[in-house]
Amino acid sequence: MDPGVENNVKAVRRSKEEKKVLRKQIKASHTLLKHEGISTTSQPTKSLVVANGGLGNGVTREDLSAALKEMGELETLIMHPHKPYAFVTYRSDESAREAHIHLNGHKLQCGENGVTLYLSFVDSVTCEEEASVPLPEGLVLVEDFVSPEEEALLLAAVDWSSTNDDVPGIPQECLPVLERCVKNKHVNAMPDQLTVNQYESGQGIPPHVDTHSAFEDTILSLSLGAQTVMEFRHPDGRLVPVVLPGRSLLVMTGESRYLWTHGITPRKFDVVPACDPQSPADVTPDPGIYSNLTLNKRGTRTSFTFRKIRHEPCRCAFPSACDNQGAPSAPSASSTSPPSLPCCHADAAHLEEEYVHRVYDAIASHFSSTRHSPWPRVCHFLNSLPPGSVLADVGCGNGKYLGVNPEVVAVGCDRSSALIQICAERGFQAFVSDALSVPLRTASCDACISIAVIHHFSTQERRLAAVRELMRLLRPGGRALIYVWAFEQEYNKQKSKYLKHQNREHPGNHSPTKNTLEDSQVPQGKSSIHTSRPLEDNCSPVDEVRDVGKVTDGKLSVHTNRTAFNTQDLLVPWHLKEGKRRGEEESGECGKKDKRKEKPRKTSGNPDPSSGFDSNMSPGSGQDARDATHSANSKPSGDATQTSTSSLKSESESGPAPVFHRYYHVFQQGELERLCCQVAGVKVRSTYHDQGNWCVILEKDKSINAM
């Protein structure tokens, strides 16, 4: 080819690429304005907004800063948690112009992920000073409490391959650490019980409070290996994330031990300060302040949690949270008598409050960790909406559908305040609301979705009212998508994923009356509890896994997970446990599962013959970890009582987690369409069966102005 022609071809090609980048840059600017209220300008300034360069895209401060610094000296770099953009201010206008020219359309590689940056000028950037949030009262974090050499000795002291009968007591390697804790007045007396957990990247624990009656006041948690973020939450809603570096000691006493829940959200990256803040030891950086945040990839973390077994009733200053002082137990956990079908509106509201609303608030973190993959046909509906459409997700859960189509204005609502908090932390617009009374204007939405919600209403009248409320929100011509769990889990000779997972969840055991270790929620691998006396009654294997079949004497049956339904109104168990994701009872509510290695769990203890403990937790949690529990003075001869328990607890406990029950009305074929057709002005556009769910797409009659 003639050199001149070749140069012309390259120029045309380059021009096309530049035009493509310009189009995407303009589109990114419009998206920022519409969804975030960020206005850009065509006039060069020192400040730019970097679309796709945010923590929410998996971009670290270090990677983005390195790319930006190639264009000139930076003045500030602000990265908001969970947001897909960042703000940068250069020292000079010239450097900002260079970045605008050379970094627009630039592919930035961040670990395994790659993002394309689009930069636009902004008039100014407000840089708030970093604030500090006080740690919960009674919580102390001591960094570098053990040396790297001590860390290696402690990790080597845990033998994960040992059998149930030969787990020793507290390892000798722990004694110097405990003596230092006593000497430094972190604890008044030597602990006599130890729990060891190991967490791989992406694993965590739901929020919980260690049971007051089981252990004394002070709880010591030593973090070894990779750092993580533990979240403390007050009953009034205050949230304090605490970064736990490797080799640090966390001391929980008083209010932080008895009143605040603590947990670790299952994820592979944490939003953390970019460097160690020069701040007092009793404060933590506020995650709402953005001038110095980055992402930290989690690694393997092992925690050693030391406690003192309690021998007298707890008399703490927090009776509302104390099981010894009459605090209410976890909702619907290990209920001995199933409720009856409601016979009036008040009964229905009470049933749903107890067996739907309270349950989802209690299991929110665990539930959210199993709901991360949007269903394809729901995504197809959302992506078919025209740009600028207003979408209401009624019963949005953790918000997994709110970000599917960035071209629509999406707002969600849910009855669970805990799930709405998760939505807020992910940057979604959502609020607490009952699905029967959504505080949005009539005919204000172009589309509504109700995914796995209406089957939780316990009467025909309330299910009908839920459909009416969806139609009220729609403008004339607007569409709604509804999913409900199907009675027919086998359809057109195809089993749903819910039934297909039966063999995986219950290998070799399909009997609803047989309580194997797996049915009792003891994890795969080795598991044992050694105490000087049998565990209390509430640690006995639960019997909620039975399916009593048809409604008897008006009582609701308790369904056997991963089996076909034989009644429409029932209670479905939710086992609050992370390790095996046993919470994913419905194919209609589970996406792709994380494929992770199962870790063996070791628990043992043989304390002073006069001691014993009821290792329970309120409200309870599961764990994505392998767990070893040791007690002082134990003998390796295995002469202690060995008892299988019904389920797992938290990082700080080895007792059983509660089993929660959620009410469901599973829909038979044609039932959902008949229900919807009772609402005036509704047209059923399509109906289908999708992996164990009945689904309809509705349209509001264009002649209907208000409902």
From TrEMBL:
| Family matches, as InterPro entries | AlkB-like (IPR027450), AlkB-like_sf (IPR037151), AlkB_hom8_N (IPR015095), AlkB_tRNA_MeTrf/Diox (IPR051422), ALKBH8_RRM (IPR034256), Methyltransf_11 (IPR013216), Nucleotide-bd_a/b_plait_sf (IPR012677), Oxoglu/Fe-dep_dioxygenase_dom (IPR005123)
Specify residue ranges for compositional bias: Polar residues.
510-531, 603-621, 630-642
- List, alphabetically, the PROSITE patterns matched: FE2OG_OXY, RRM
Q: Which Pfam families match?
A: 2OG-FeII_Oxy_2, ALKBH8_N, Methyltransf_11, RRM_1
Q: Outline the extent of the Fe2OG dioxygenase domain.
A: 190-310
Q: Which GO terms describe its biological process?
A: tRNA methylation; tRNA wobble uridine modification
* Principal location class: cytoplasm
SUPFAM superfamilies annotated for this entry? Clavaminate synthase-like, RNA-binding domain, RBD, S-adenosyl-L-methionine-dependent methyltransferases
Any one GO CC term of the record: nucleus
The terms under GO molecular function for this entry are: 2-oxoglutarate-dependent dioxygenase activity; metal ion binding; S-adenosylmethionine-dependent methyltransferase activity; tRNA (5-carboxymethyluridine(34)-5-O)-methyltransferase activity; tRNA binding
**EC numbers for this chain:** 2.1.1.229
Q: Which cofactor does it need?
A: Fe(2+)
Cite the RRM domain residue spans from the record. Answer: 46-124
Q: Which family does it belong to?
A: Belongs to the alkB family.
| Function according to Swiss-Prot or TrEMBL | Catalyzes the methylation of 5-carboxymethyl uridine to 5-methylcarboxymethyl uridine at the wobble position of the anticodon loop in tRNA via its methyltransferase domain. Catalyzes the last step in the formation of 5-methylcarboxymethyl uridine at the wobble position of the anticodon loop in target tRNA. Has a preference for tRNA(Arg) and tRNA(Glu), and does not bind tRNA(Lys).
**Protein known as:** tRNA (carboxymethyluridine(34)-5-O)-methyltransferase
Natural source organism = Dicentrarchus labrax (European seabass)
Give the gene that encodes this protein: alkbh8
